[in-house]
Please model this.
Amino acid sequence: FRAFGVYSDADFAELEILNAGSPTETRTKVKVEKGWGLGFEGEYLARPRFGIPITLLYVQQDFAVVHDTLTVWAMDADQIDWLALTVGGNFHFTRPGSSVDVFGGPFVGYASISDPSLDLNNTIDVSVDDEFTWGLQLGFDVPARSGWGFHGGLRWFSLATDVAPTGLDADFDPLLVDAGLSYRF
Model:
């Protein structure tokens, strides 16, 4: 079992310009940045070097939208929350009983993403779609005493969502750095 804190870096920005150079030109920019969260993971070791992890992650990402026409300019920022439930396969690279357990593997899952609460002068009402996701993880556990230990790792998510009604696809693909505690039964 692993419980950990998460730092997420997405660094995504997308700009859409409609009717460029015309009297109805509009520009919409969506930006997703850093975030923080928590994660819990249970891993069943099906074989000494192969495990099946089930992970629940909760992350808050910074989110901003700029919407601009020839007559109206609006900008607001909020946070989007996303909750991901994933299942995967971990290959343990080190031998059982080693002083450090290094593991990695792919995962698939589903991410529920909240709609931001933005005030853009009533020009645009933003909603974000939930999405299926996949990714890769690489981690390590350092055993201490009585089953307890330290956990650290990296997770990369392929996470893309539609931002309605802009029509923009936010491919923010976050990279998560996690650190916390592990407990081996």
Notes: The two ends are 8 Å apart (CA to CA). Residues 72 and 123 are 8 Å apart (CA to CA). The chain has a mean pLDDT of 87.
